[in-house]
Amino acid sequence: MSDTTRLPVAVDAMGGDRAPGEIVAGAVRARDELGVEVVLVGRPDEIGDTGGLEVIAASEVIAMDADPGRSVRTMKDSSLVRAAEAVRDAKACAMVSAGNTGATMASALLRIKRLPGVGRPAIATPIPCPGAETPTVLLDAGANAECSAEWLVQFAQMGAVYARQRYGIEDPKVGLLSIGEEPTKGTPLVKETHGLLAAGDWAAASGGTFVGNVEGRDVMSPDVDVVVTDGFTGNVVLKTLEGGMRSLVKAILASFDTNDDTRAAGEVLIPALLPLYGQLDPDNTGGALLLGLNGPCIISHGSSSATAIVNAVQVAVEMVDGDLCGAIGRAIRPA
After folding, report:
1. What are the b/e assignments for 208-228, b being 16+ CB within 10 Å?
2. pLDDT digit string (tens) for the chain, length 335 residues
């Protein structure tokens, strides 16, 4: 799809801890650096200088701590709802938001709608693997706290399609998160899902190879490309990894400032560590995708900077141009 025929990306200007300043700055940079058309959604009088970007007016803002379902139902003129409606009404090709995650999901689900045959959408989050060329795709990372085995099988299908479309992995290795590699380990849900994935029927249309159960230690390794789990467990894994990496980086930086010797060592080592830091920086991942909808929805983290928004818009464009939704729709057909 050429830049002249692609619809703009709708960016929720009011969502996130650093909105609207960083969000608008990122949207302007996305236009200038990527050549992508972007439309902002939010309160025109609060957005400030848009740098010439079009604004879809929305009078309400769903707070980060608001109840997702109730807010989406009652605040129909919120920036999140209007962004999702822009995709639904073919005024935008995708939506990006760093706002309330639950409300983003609810807005997208209610307005953009699910693809035919999809039981539940899932949040697919790329987890960096130091030293590897591609990250691990973790899903579901928080959309569905309780799941059925059939949904998890669909997550495997969607994750495999996503890994192939975005990262060029021809035959993604799909693992099921559990407490041991043996098929007999795990909850009843995990055991039932293992049986369905091991049967292999799910891979006929979506591609991918089931490699069995994987453990938490495998998420940041090149041994698996897609890790499937329920949204409750997936979100715990995601937040644990984020907190662990943040603590590790702080500890390393602190150790370089304990005395003259460590400061001298830091001057040599820190430049060498910067590429690794960049790989682990969530601003550089572009956000997570809500898979299973009729249009791309990118969920950026709440503290997103302008750089994070640029990368989120880039991901949105890549998924639109690669027809990710169409590929998922072809892999998961209505029964």
Report:
1. bebbbbbebebbbeeebbbbb
2. 445 589 999 999 999 999 999 999 999 999 999 999 999 999 999 999 999 999 999 999 999 889 988 999 999 999 999 999 999 999 999 999 999 999 999 999 999 999 999 999 999 999 988 878 899 999 999 999 999 999 999 999 999 999 999 999 999 999 999 999 999 999 999 999 999 999 988 888 888 999 999 999 999 999 999 999 999 999 999 989 888 888 888 888 888 888 988 888 888 888 877 776 666 677 777 789 999 999 999 999 888 999 999 999 999 999 999 999 999 999 987 65
The full set of domain ranges for the chain reads 1-118+292-335, 122-254+285-290
Total residue count of the chain as it appears in this document: 335
- Cβ burial, residue 248 (10 Å; 0-12/13-18/19+): exposed
Query: CA-based diameter of the chain, in Å?
Result: 67
**Angle subtended by helix axes 324-331 and 306-321, to nearest 10:** 50
- CATH class of the region 122-254+285-290: alpha beta
Structure tokens belonging to residue 74: 């009652």
Please give the class, per CATH, of domain 1-118+292-335. Answer: alpha beta
209 neighbors 173 (Cβ within 8 angstroms) = yes
- CATH fold match for the domains 1-118+292-335 and 122-254+285-290: yes
Beta bridge partners of 97: 299
**Rounded Cα distance, 274 and 296, in Å:** 31
